[in-house]
């Protein structure tokens, strides 16, 4: 017994001192396994080991007992910026010869150091004539991840083809020398290893220039380490954006301009008639909303939010979205759910009084940041603005089903109310593309509000701003 106690104490000391190797402990077992995708024939498989392995392999096949296909990839050393310099190896393997609409079983690991348990995913149907189903949420932590069990169960029953996690992970991935990030990634593994887990960065990823986010995730396109990218899914082009470039200029001002140029080109490309014919729905998502009616002082509560209106009339995204016919804009950051009437430049643009979401003349915005985290709820102002259609601060998440080129359905699940659907809309569009010319386009804003924001950003380096 005394010997066992000594051994346990020694191992503990080894951990504390970061001397695992000297103490003979190795950590080769694959963990934090997650996947992403951009086509019916491809899956990007990512996992971590705390010690390096000689190779990064995925064995896969259509039968659990017949994993006869092999793909190899690479590992990248990731050292967290904290004082412990917590080190792990992020492995990435791209499977690009998959059959569409097919269940695959797979294991990840190394010939010499061992493999994971057997996992599985289902590839997307081919082409654009199918109906993607997604779970969508932001602001999802390690502690108080209230929606997680329900999401896991729903994913396990085959309810979703992908997840969109709209920024703010773990709270925070870099906390406690990135151990919170490790635990969060292990926590979501049952979900994220079975359906593509598509992401964008939020403010909680800011530490060390977003390095935990940039290193842990691999998204298709790989633009600035997946800070922004796009992917096609059936009749939808999803465009993932990085609102955080506006708020952390201490990491560089130029990336704000570069992102704007990329977003403009991406939206224009999506809106070309030949592309719009294949992907009629254009859905943009990013962490911080353009509009919200919460009772905090976040950017979206301002009349001229930075994401919407930019600085002194430059770099704002709302006009880009409007000019290029973005159908749906999805946000998070506020720990609540809010659905807006179709809106442009703070004016409601309903399709009609009786059918506001049928052929609306501006994008439809929703904010869904209430999956659950240790920071709790964000409450609303008592007065509901004219542009706000429905709001709830229950914990929960959004489901989306894109039926076809004309019909897109969204509903809000309240986990607080046992999974009840508390809101739903069908967006109907006979035609997609640029909205009608608006007689009152966004004007360059010269008011003190934006000027003060810019000054604040430059003075404080962005950190600590709402
Ligand atoms: Fe946030």
What does this protein look like?
The protein is an alpha+beta fold. Helix content is 21%, strand content 29%. It contains ten helices and 28 strands. The protein has a seven-stranded mixed beta sheet, covered by helices on one side. A six-stranded mixed beta sheet has the order 14-12-10-26-27-28, with no helix packed on it. β22 (343-344) and β23 form a beta hairpin. The longest helix is centred in the middle third of the chain and has 17 residues, at 254-270. The relative contact order is 0.11. The model is unreliable at 1-8 and 462-466 (pLDDT under 50).
Strand order in the sheet with the most strands? 15-16-17-20-24-21-25
Our count of helices gives: 10
Task: Provide the low-confidence segments as ranges.
Answer: 1-8, 462-466
Percent range for helical residues?
10-25%
Structural class by secondary-structure content: alpha+beta
Strand residues, percent? 25-35%
